[in-house]
Specification:
disordered N terminus; about 240 residues; alpha+beta
Length: about 240
C-alpha cells in the first residue's frame, strides 16, 4: 500500500459527511501557527471478510507552516504539499528510487478528484470533524496533553485521541461494516531535532519532474509505464 493510500485513508476517515474543499471551520486550526513536527505513524487495516491478520504500514509525516511531506517507511514513495504566497497548493508525488516527481497543477486537481484544504492536511482532521464528535475526556498520549473524542457519522463509529498542543491525532480508529482502520502515532519530535528529516525542497527540485497530465502522451516512457502498471493501467505497444 503506497503512501498516497495512507493519506487517503487518514484524510478520508470521516468522509461522507465532509468535503475536503468545503470546510467552514472555527479559527482555532487556521489562526494558530502549526508546530513544526516530525512524526511516524502506523496504519492498520482489518477487513472483516479477510484473514484476521491486519495490513500494517508505517510512514512518516513532516509539517512546517508551508510544507507537508510524507514518506513510506522504506523510503520508496512520498508526497509533498507546498503552500504558495497566494495560498494555492502545489502537490507532487515523489518516487525517490527513480528521482522523479509527478506534479499535479492546481487547475488539474479537481479533474483528479483532488481538492486539498491546508488546515485539514496539516492537522489530518479539521476542527469541523472534531466538533462533529463528542468530547469524552482529557487524557495523555505520547507524554503530551490530549483529548478523547467519540462519535458516529453515518455508519462509521469513530474514536480520536487528539494532541491538543500539536493539533495532530495520536490515534484514529474508524469502524464500519467493511472493517476497521486504525492510525497510531508511534514517534513525535520537534522537526529541528528529528532523527529522520524530510527531503529538502532543493533536492526535490533536482528530480525529474513530470506533469501528471502528460502521462497519456508518455506511455512508452519506462518510468511512466512502471507507474501506470502499478496503478493497474495497461497499454498496448
Amino acid at each position: 500500500m503506497k503512501i498516497s493510500i495512507f493519506l487517503k485513508l487518514v484524510i478520508g476517515l470521516i468522509l461522507v459527511s465532509f468535503a475536503v474543499s468545503g470546510f467552514s471551520d472555527s479559527t482555532s486550526n487556521s489562526v494558530q501557527q502549526p508546530t513544526e513536527v516530525a512524526c511516524r505513524y502506523v496504519t492498520k487495516v482489518f477487513l472483516h471478510n479477510k484473514a484476521k491478520v491486519p495490513a500494517i504500514n508505517a510512514w512518516y509525516f513532516w509539517r512546517t507552516s508551508n510544507m507537508i511531506q510524507t514518506q513510506d517507511e522504506n523510503g520508496d514513495h512520498g508526497e509533498i504539499w507546498l503552500r504558495t504566497i497566494n495560498d494555492t497548493i502545489q502537490y507532487r508525488k515523489l518516487y525517490h528510487a527513480d528521482k522523479t516527481a509527478v506534479e499535479y497543477m492546481p487547475a488539474d486537481m479537481p479533474t483528479n478528484n483532488m481538492n486539498f484544504n491546508w488546515d485539514k492536511l496539516s492537522n489530518m482532521l479539521s476542527q469541523s470533524e472534531l466538533d462533529a464528535l463528542k468530547w469524552v475526556k482529557k487524557t495523555h498520549a505520547m507524554n503530551r496533553n490530549a483529548e478523547m473524542y467519540k462519535g458516529k457519522i453515518g455508519k462509521q463509529a469513530i474514536e480520536v485521541v487528539w494532541l491538543t498542543d500539536e493539533k495532530l491525532p495520536a490515534s484514529i480508529i474508524k469502524k464500519d461494516k467493511v472493517g476497521t482502520v486504525e492510525l497510531h502515532l508511534v514517534e513525535i519530535e520537534a522537526l529541528s531535532v528529528a532523527r529522520k528529516k524530510p527531503l529538502d525542497v532543493e533536492e526535490i527540485a533536482n528530480y525529474r519532474h513530470i506533469d501528471a497530465t502528460d502521462f497519456g502522451d508518455m506511455e512508452n516512457d519506462p518510468f511512466v509505464k512502471k507507474v501506470m502498471a502499478a496503478n493497474g493501467h495497461h497499454h498496448n505497444n
